[in-house]
């Protein structure tokens, strides 16, 4: 279908974008990659009065290092994240998860910032961002602020962003050399994750020294499986030890129920997929 | 021409159709634009069942770009127009009037309530939001068994019932077999099973569209339809338009699969609106509209009883179906389950058979033909229960089938339904399939995995099928009360320069008729493949036909071409003899040449065509024309068959299914174009596998279709399907001169039970003997854990995934 | 808003509503009907074109976002009447039946080969996961893509599609 009419603003800088968003009022929407927004508009599930297109704000694109931190501009496309050498080296989990997002065409346009701001609990990039202890840099009329990922995702499709704020950067502490795996489970390749597990581990001689585990679609926001994380510390990666740690995966979760999965099945999948993700990451 | 020309029939010719399609020089209905074209958008009911209290179109009428807004009151004030149903399966069948736009009541979510006509499609859609409709909701009827229970709320009050018709066949009564109750009561083994054929969406890639131009001498309607001829005559009958003043064109059509067999309210609306305004109008649907408003397929509850001797001979088969028509009778909807009535006995010699189908109305989108139309449902039921019977008897499922199937030497064979299968060789197809599949090797692997309690189990699924296609001998259709014949038409025009124009009544939407018919004509007339032009789809040029469905185009339409070509040759012969100054009997015709027997003296078909055109020197009494036509009515259905073997791995920890291999050996008689045949099989397999594993509509308790987009209704991409190993045996048909059998639906008919049988086979050690389609991972896992067959259903919570909601405040997207 | 888009080598300047999808701009304003719309939710991929050298679903791009960019559609592939190797391979391998998904399938296949000039079967299937076909069952499409790969020079990617001559077609109105 065809979207309802809207006004369109195309700023060239972050400041212009913030001003445009403020000027456009409550019913404005930011247009990032458009791969989530445009289908919503086409289905007329939303009818914003103004779209603020970040597509030409060059300063929002690109990956750079800032000391011990990897900084990814919010408008960096999935395609660019997949191919970035810095991401591969310092945040392998993000690359692994991005590889599973949608399809090639959508990855050419969709952006990391857009996906994070959209906060679809079944989206694949929220759990990795949470697992990597990222911070989200937000710009608004009163300047910039930084929100830890753990505080950023509030509810389904709801983040810490105020209506007049933009996500500008994703700051990820370098996890250089950490091994990672994103285990995605869906009904067909185009389908959203029923459950998915993001795991990144630091290993020394087959022993897991540190682990980060986060779950996709086991709640209205991504969830850290801290029970699994602590169970893995100092553990020699083996089938039994991994299974034991993975058995904590569903603790504290409130999984949604939909046509694809009920609570029992989701909890079960979380454990099985967590075990597989750890095994793949730790090379067991 | 040389005498050593290879026959065209049997060649894997690349297609003539491709050139335009791969370069984007296409003629989809939505591509068509005309001066002053207006655009229609339809307001559809969000409620599955409601009285329309009021419709206020005043605001919409004054919206930007809007020319008119119509309701049923405007287009059909007398309530006289009813959408046609061409298949009243019984004299008592209920026939609720299906209006062009809802009149007073809406009976399914998606039924059209009003239509906006505007200068642009965007403006037409914008104006939909300005229409104010007040509804009074009525009870929703979704469940088949609840619908026929006493005291059930009615879809159509005036019918007094939700039962549309009951259709029965009994072999004892028909004199074609024994009494099934006697057989069941006297048999050592009796199995009863209930299977569910879920509702599917045909999901052709091109959404439907229609353009009507009332300004030309014949009112011209372009429509993305499979049935331009049927659409023409039905539109004339439905709206009272003189048939000779109506021209229907199916331009390029992007897939149909039965889903574009229809006479649509939207097409009728377009005709009415265009005539009212005196201007061309276009209706072009969105995918969301297609999902909701285009007819659905399948949707049956099947109660199957099979009886057998302890040593594995089937003695009786009883089939009781509940079939969901949806809210109305589709063009052939009531007949779809009946088409399967004669196929439950399949390839087997079953002495006694009983079939009963109850067609039921519910407040849902209507159902009608979808690839296989009744026969996939039948094949599924019999092939599933044969596997269950094999387990019950403790025998190998292939051995059980072989014990009961019709042997090669027994053809032609008249079945317990009274159908005569002309030819077949189930032994040869099965033997080839087993070898290609490594049946014994996979059984051995299955044993090993079972013994070691491997987390990944292996299952082997079998489907040995036949089907009845090539619709159809007209007399049989008459005996089934189908409101049309089953003949097909072709005409051949011999042009002066030696080229050939052929019109066919078949209406391709991907099947490659232009190529295959050119091959047939090339062989028949000895002209070059490139020198043949096939015209189709336009009632002004290919004026006569019964269109494409039911795997009929080759075995009925192709034979019409053969017959027409024979007439051309027969007309050419006396002219050739005259030119060569010999007797007709002295001439033989081969490779496009008439040659005087025993000499080198000859003249080509092209020479004869030119001479006929000049008409300077023709024999007395001969018309100066070689052009001929033929209307061919087949004497029997076509009975392709095949053996399909599927190896499925089941990850018992997650319920995920992986198709390890899929082998099929199909027998479609003589193949005109093996490449096209193979392509039809591939596509059919994909759809049958998708029914088994991925597809299925879901409605919530208010009757809203919750799988209303491609984000929720899951079609497989290339990444979700394996490569197939396909092969053929060739047992020619004995009922047509080409020896060909239909192939269009075979892959779909066979594959669904092959896949389901494979998965059940894999998890049988866990005590599972059925899982309902689609076999989602959760269903499989729950079956293993808890023995349930149908885990899952509409969700409880608002979940992520897909469009979601961005009403939530705070959240730049 | 006034936008300029170069499509299949020709520059077009037009006044468009911001809500106009790129696919509708191509089809309705520029007459490029070779690219089609198959769904509402960005699943089917029938609308796939190349935007500045990368495949995109043109139903999920606004025309205004394509301002100043280069678009290649299926209609811009053939050179001097000679088919692109992928087009040829689709024909040779019977990789289409009704043809509706074909333009998108061809455009995505070209993109996939630009990123991976010698894909195995699995890589082709995954590379086409954003394109639905209801007719072919995909098998011949996969065969065609691997066949095309053999006939294409390595690295013939986005650069190969830039056309030297740009014709400006003046300003269209709304």
Mind explaining what this structure looks like?
The complex is a heterotrimer of chains A (284), B (813) and C (174). In chain A, 33% of the residues lie in helices and 27% in strands. Chain A is built from twelve helices and 15 strands. Chain A has helices at 14-24, 37-42, 78-83, 85-90, 92-98, 104-109, 112-118, 126-131, 149-152, 226-232, 239-246, 263-282; strands at 7-9, 28-31, 50-53, 63-66, 69-73, 135-140, 143-148, 153-155, 158-159, 166-173, 179-185, 195-204, 207-216, 223-224, 235-236. Chain A has a five-stranded antiparallel sheet with strand order 4-5-10-6-7. In chain A, strands 11, 12, 13, 14 and 15 form a five-stranded antiparallel sheet that branches. A three-stranded parallel sheet of chain A has the order 1-3-2, covered by helices on one side. In chain A, helix 10 runs antiparallel to helix 11 and helix 11 (239-246) packs antiparallel against helix 12 (263-282). Chain A is globular and about 60 Å long. The model of chain A has no long low-confidence stretch (mean pLDDT 96). Chain B is α+β, with helices and mostly antiparallel strands and 813 residues long. Helices cover 28% and strands 22% of the residues of chain B. Chain B contains 22 helices and 28 strands. Chain B is globular, with a radius of gyration of 28 Å. Mean pLDDT of chain B is 95; it is low at 804-813. The model of chain C is unreliable at 159-174 (pLDDT under 50). Chain C has 174 residues and is of the alpha/beta class. Chain C has helices at residues 22-29, 85-92, 102-115, 121-127, 139-151; strands at residues 2-7, 10-15, 48-51, 54-57, 70-72, 167-172. In chain C, helix 2 crosses helix 5. In chain C, a hairpin with a 2-residue loop joins strand 1 and strand 2 (10-15). Chain C has two domains: 2-76, Beta-grasp domain (Ubiquitin-like (UB roll), Roll); 85-150, DNA polymerase, domain 1 (Orthogonal Bundle). The chains are: A alpha+beta (284), B alpha+beta (813), C alpha/beta (174). Chains in contact: A-B, A-C, B-C. Chain C: Residues 1-77 form the 2Fe-2S ferredoxin-type domain. Chain C: GO terms for molecular function: 2 iron, 2 sulfur cluster binding; metal ion binding; oxidoreductase activity. Chain C: This is Carbon-monoxide dehydrogenase small subunit. Chain C: InterPro entries: 2Fe-2S-bd, 2Fe-2S-bd_dom_sf, 2Fe-2S_ferredoxin-like_sf, 2Fe-2S_ferredoxin-type, Beta-grasp_dom_sf, Diverse_Oxidoreductases. Chain C: Keywords: 2Fe-2S, Iron, Iron-sulfur, Metal-binding, Oxidoreductase.
